[in-house]
From TrEMBL, chain A:
Lineage top rank: taxon: Bacteria
Compartments (UniProt record): Cell inner membrane; Cell membrane
Family per similarity comment: Belongs to the binding-protein-dependent transport system permease family.
Topology with respect to the bilayer: Multi-pass membrane protein
Originating organism: Azospirillum oryzae
Protein's UniProt name: sn-glycerol-3-phosphate transport system permease protein UgpE
Record domain ABC transmembrane type-1: where: 78-269
A cellular component term, taken from the record's GO annotations: plasma membrane
NCBIfam families, per database record: PRK10973.1
Organism classification: Bacteria, Pseudomonadati, Pseudomonadota, Alphaproteobacteria, Rhodospirillales
GO biological process, one term: transmembrane transport
Subunit structure: The complex is composed of two ATP-binding proteins (UgpC), two transmembrane proteins (UgpA and UgpE) and a solute-binding protein (UgpB).
From TrEMBL, chain B:
Protein name: sn-glycerol-3-phosphate transport system permease protein UgpA
A UniProt-annotated Pfam family: BPD_transp_1
Principal location listed in the UniProt entry: membrane
Keyword Kinase appears in the UniProt entry: no
TrEMBL record, chain C:
Annotated organism of origin: Azospirillum oryzae
Stated name of the protein: sn-glycerol-3-phosphate import ATP-binding protein UgpC
SMART domains hit by this protein: AAA
Family: Belongs to the ABC transporter superfamily.
Gene Ontology cellular-component terms listed: ATP-binding cassette (ABC) transporter complex, substrate-binding subunit-containing
Record keywords, A-Z: ATP-binding, Cell inner membrane, Cell membrane, Membrane, Nucleotide-binding, Sugar transport, Translocase, Transport
InterPro entries given in the database record: AAA+_ATPase (IPR003593), ABC_transporter-like_ATP-bd (IPR003439), ABC_transporter-like_CS (IPR017871), ABC_transpr_MalK-like (IPR015855), ABC_transpr_MalK/UgpC-like (IPR047641), Mo/tungstate-bd_C_term_dom (IPR008995), NA-bd_OB-fold (IPR012340), OB_MalK-like (IPR040582)
One GO MF term attached to the UniProt entry: ABC-type transporter activity
Gene Ontology BP terms: carbohydrate transport; glycerol-3-phosphate transmembrane transport; glycerophosphodiester transmembrane transport
ABC transporter domain mapped to chain residues: 4-234
Length: 282, 294, 354
């Protein structure tokens, strides 16, 4: 048997340190969400779980006020975030796959002009055109609506490019076989292209869901009523300036709940997630 | 660029393009054009009349020492985040790629922070480094440090840099790992036979072959640090104390939303657009390079 | 079942003319092979029949109906592609049934037709599998099954066997032949493989540079190649071609090496004319008088032997002999063409001289 040398352990030590650096803040938050506000506020948070977990989560989920402040119940914020994330993810996938299909499978006047029009959106992330975009959404009366939250974010050059790239790998003969079988463009899309795109769709869904769930600046601008608050912006509003006299137990429970959906998506759809990420950046 | 075989249809392609083109025009092109228009006009106090002022807004913005300070903060912040996130990710990726036990478990445990919102990452760091409630924050104070990132600008900048890098490591890790796994085993084996040790192999073989990935991540991380970290800064420091953690994007928000200075904010937006376009152009040079590699 | 008529069909890509006027009437139930080197236009012609390429000039009629402006689906044809073009996400059954479903054929009939085709092709066990779970030969059979179930007026094959390994190719060739005999459906088959052409075809259309060099039965094409191109393309090893001149009395061909080969019948009108003389390697035999060659290389193929000889003037002459080698390299040998083995071609146009 080979003797284990210290040098062989170094990679494990470094990797475990890395894992701990990433896990520790989460652990602290999980623990904190099971103690009362006083314990956390005094800074004496133990390293083991307390007994207030069920009460804290229940209060965060439905409660409209903590001991020290008013806030939107987590169930409302979760629903808003879910609607926003799903609308962005599914909306982006839908409009991108359609436009990519047009660009890849048809020849028509102005094809390249449309392609470039979509392409330059790559260079205009929402952050750089934030004020005028806000003005457009306000003029359309979409402030404090799900449409206002989602639609301005669903045009995506990345997803269109990814689908187009994939469509170009579908062999010409498959299209010709379908033509001879009698399938027109709509049937070919539904019967052949869509099923073949399943893994690409799943991969894109994962990263777009996370992208949508994690939006911050945009929801901050277009939502002003508590009913439309998303959970990521909601947390920071609960924290305010970060004084010690906050409802920390509720905030921590809320943070755990805010992390849950995207982390679950990454962990359970890891294979698709890595594929989607690496493919969409090519 | 185009398939050899296509469908013949006059109307259908336009119908398929319509939704994306509509959204692009209404929410991308029109606002961007508006920003450019606004950036060369000056509105009166009532917002009724506006006057074409050439580059006055730009000279005003770029001549403002505050703006130049913000630019400096942004550069320090972005470079620090990029270097830190990439360095740590590369180290972890190289280790996780080597043939050690539990490599795939390490991978799973290292990629999930990608799922966290920048703002949530900031909140997690606050839970630890808050001088009142955070364990590390209190420990620092107990050790005699005057630790309070809410009052000390340097500490605030350090906090947002750490929180922003912490979140970005997993993204870089995924790409470095994919890049490492794309390097053919045979190349490494040839280097071993040539007598190169592990460290030498890394610097003379792995690192150069990884350079397309490194270059790509450099651009992505810069864009991340410029724009997506708005949430980190907003949640953690609100740009303060003073303007110690105010980056360009934060200032656009501050001037446009909070101070309602449309011309100035638009001029800043246009400057940001130029930066993004430059970074994207650089990235495309990279794509061309990558083609040469393969 | 139907005839396929191709009337003066042309195809241009911009100023480039890829098909320069092809005329052929394919009989009902006939198996026509389009044979030629890559780039000769044979696939383009097939795809024009299928409706996958536009027709620049001329007419194509299937079953007496001009189809120039019909979509592929309305032409009543089925096609087998080189790379099979199976739908990767559908089962074998669905692959075969797809075209029938689109045409609105009742489920029970689809089932019956697919089962019948699967039976013929011995695919019954694989109906629930996906293409990725099949071998190359099985995929090829599914592609043919997809064509069969349609019961079309004509089958179009686009180099269907070129992705298979040599052994499987031979096996599938036999299967296609049997299938055609059994179903009797008019077929157009594109290939660059002369063995496939010779074994499968009722008639072969040999194409070169968008022109039909010759249309004829396999034996006609072999025995009476219409041009130097056909002579060189059909037959393995290829025909020997030597420069020569018909003597002043029109009774023999004179070769630069001094040989004199008598013509089977005198050609007084051609007296003194320069010609290209073709002799197939298998039609040469050892003789007392004729071409004296120095043997450069001997290829023993088992059943026969190919000898590469050099004529005194430096030209190479191939001789194919039955059985195992009886000569060695650097030996000298005298060979002569058998009776009636001479092919004469015009020295300028390359056309056959009858």
């Amino acid at each position: 048997m080979k003797q284990t040398r210290f040098i062989d352990l170094v990679p494990h030590i470094v990797l475990i340190a890395g894992v701990l650096i990433f896990a520790y803040p989460i652990y602290v938050t999980l623990i904190g969400s099971t103690w009362d506000a006083g314990t956390i506020g005094r800074g004496g948070l133990p390293l083991w779980p307390g007994g207030e977990g069920a009460a804290n989560y229940a209060q965060a989920w439905v409660g409209e006020a903590g001991e020290r402040a008013m806030y939107t119940p987590v169930r409302t914020m979760m629903l808003n975030s879910l609607v926003m994330a799903l609308s962005i993810a599914l909306g982006k996938i839908a409009i991108s796959i359609l436009s990519a299909y047009a660009v890849a499978f048809f020849r028509f006047p102005l094809r390249m002009a449309f392609f470039w029009l979509i392409f330059i959106t790559l260079m205009l992330p929402v952050e750089v055109r934030i004020i005028p975009t806000y003005k457009v959404v306000a003029d359309l009366g979409l402030i404090n609506t799900y449409a206002g939250l989602a639609i301005p974010l669903i045009a995506s050059a990345t997803a269109t490019l990814l689908f187009r790239q994939f469509f170009l790998t579908i062999p010409d003969e498959l299209l010709e076989a379908a033509k001879i079988d009698g399938a027109g463009p709509v049937r070919f899309f539904i019967d052949v292209v869509l099923p073949l795109s399943r893994t690409n769709i799943a991969a894109l869904f994962v990263i777009l869901f996370i992208y949508g769930w994690n939006q911050y600046l945009w929801p901050l601008l277009v939502t002003s009523s508590g009913d439309m608050e998303t959970i990521v912006t909601g947390i920071t509003k609960m924290i305010g300036t970060g004084e010690s006299a906050n409802d920390w137990h509720i905030i921590m429970a809320t943070t755990v709940l805010a992390m849950l959906p995207p982390v679950a998506v990454v962990v359970f759809m890891q294979r698709w997630f890595v594929k989607g990420l690496v493919d969409s950046e090519k | 660029m185009q398939r050899r075989v296509t469908f013949d249809s006059r109307l259908l392609p336009y119908l398929l393009l319509a939704p994306q083109v509509a959204v692009t025009l209404v929410f991308f092109i029109w606002p961007a054009a508006n920003a450019i228009w606004q950036s060369v006009h000056l509105q009166d106090a009532f917002g009724i009349r506006s006057e074409f002022v050439w580059f006055e807004n730009f000279t005003h913005v770029l001549g403002d020492p505050n703006y130049l300070d913000t630019l400096k903060t942004t550069v320090i912040f972005s470079v620090a985040v990029t270097v830190l996130a990439m360095g740590v990710a590369l180290l972890l990726a190289v280790l996780a790629d080597s043939k050690i036990k539990g490599a795939s478990a390490y991978k799973t445990l290292l990629i999930w922070p990608y799922a966290l919102a920048p703002a949530v990452a900031a909140v997690l760091w606050m839970f630890i480094f808050n001088p009142d409630i955070g364990s590390f924050g209190r420990a620092l104070r107990a050790l005699g440090f005057d630790w309070d990132y809410r009052l000390n600008g340097g500490q605030a900048l350090l906090m947002v840099i750490l929180a922003a890098s912490w979140k970005q490591v997993s993204y870089n890790f995924i790409f470095f790992l994919a890049g490492l796994q794309a390097i053919p085993r045979s190349v490494m084996e040839a280097a071993s036979i040539d007598g190169a040790g592990p460290v030498r192999r890394f610097w003379t073989i792995t690192f150069p072959l990884l350079s397309p990935t490194t270059f790509f991540l450099l651009v992505v991380d810069m864009v991340y640090a410029f724009f997506e970290t708005f949430g980190t800064i907003h949640a953690l420091t609100q740009g303060g104390p003073g303007k110690a953690t105010e980056t360009l994007i934060f200032r656009v928000y501050q001037d446009g939303v909070v101070n309602n200075d449309l011309g100035g904010s638009s001029a800043q937006s246009v400057i940001l657009m130029v930066i993004v376009i430059a970074l994207t152009a650089v990235q495309f040079r990279f794509v061309e390079r990558k083609v040469h590699y393969s | 079942m139907a005839t396929v008529e191709i009337r003066n069909v042309r195809k241009s890509y911009g100023p480039v003319e890829a098909i320069k006027g092809i005329d052929i009437a394919i009989q009902d139930g006939e198996f026509l092979v389009l044979l030629g080197p890559s780039g000769c236009g044979k696939s383009t012609l097939l795809r024009m029949v299928a409706g996958l390429e536009g027709i620049t000039g001329g007419e194509i009629a299937i079953g007496g109906r001009v189809v120039n402006h019909l979509d592929p689906k309305d032409r009543d044809i089925a096609m087998v592609f080189q790379n099979y073009a199976l739908y990767p996400h559908m089962t074998v059954f669905d692959n075969m049934a797809y075209g029938l479903k689109i045409r609105g054929i009742p489920k029970a009939e689809i089932r019956a037709r697919v089962d019948k085709a699967a039976n013929i092709l011995e695919l019954g066990r694989f109906l629930d599998r996906r293409p990725s779970q099949l071998s190359g030969g099985q995929r090829q059979r599914v592609a043919m099954g997809r064509a069969i179930v349609r019961e079309p007026a004509a089958f179009l094959f686009d180099e269907p066997l070129s992705n298979l390994d040599a052994k499987l190719r031979t096996q599938m060739r036999v299967e296609i032949k049997r299938l055609q005999d059994r179903l009797g459906i008019t077929s157009l088959y594109v290939t660059h493989d002369q063995v496939e052409a010779m074994t499968l075809a009722d008639r072969i259309l040999v194409m070169n540079h968008g022109v039909a060099e010759q249309i004829g039965t396999p034996l006609e094409v072999y025995q009476r190649p219409a041009s130097l191109f056909v002579a060189g393309f059909i037959g393995s090893p290829p025909m020997n071609v030597l420069d020569g001149r018909i003597d002043d009395r029109g009774e023999a061909v004179l070769l630069p090496g001094g040989q004199r080969l008598p013509l089977p019948r005198p050609r007084a009108t051609d007296a003194g004319r320069p010609v290209k003389l073709g002799i197939r390697p298998e039609h040469m035999a050892v003789a007392a008088d004729g071409f004296s060659i120095e043997i450069e290389l001997v290829e023993a193929l088992g059943a026969d032997t190919v000898v590469y000889g050099r004529l005194p003037d430096g030209e190479t002459l191939l001789v194919r002999m039955a059985g195992i080698p009886t000569v060695r390299e650097r030996d000298r040998l005298t060979v002569a063409p058998q009776d009636g083995a001479l092919h004469l071609f015009d020295a300028v146009t390359g056309r056959r001289m009858e």
